[in-house]
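Translate sequence into structure tokens.
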Amino acid sequence: MQSVSTNAISAFGSALVTRLLTNTRGTLVASPFSVWATLAMAEGASVKDSAASDQLREMLRFDLVEGDVHRWFQDICLKISTSDKMVRFTAANAVFAMDEVQSEYIEFCMSVFSAEVFQLQTRGDINDFVYNNTDGMIQEILSEDPCGPSVLVNAALFQSPWN
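Result follows.
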């Protein structure tokens, strides 16, 4: 039986897929898990009790999680990666930033998301990270250099036999 707290990513994913299907033409591949994890990293950088933090927490359905949402996320990743010997799951998270990143945020990203922090220079830096952390299965995630001061990345590798 699925607990209420495991529905946070599912509820977010349902809303995300509904929104994407309404606004997308052609083929679409999206991982609600990856989008949720990346936005949760962004929420960690927001000012607590600010409008941005409140909006992200609501969108990510943090209210469906009993207890510490970040510990819950770590437990979910551990369960996915160890629950079935036939399943291979890796979630590689990273922060690429042009400027110095506050040490508290680096610690948060490392402890909760096992995220690495890198100096952002070109799309090649991000593409190399994703390529290396998906055993080459995702060869390019960005086709142009990013224009923002930072980029949050989640690359998920999930392999399982089809039954």
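Note: The beta strands are 88-97, 116-119, 150-159.
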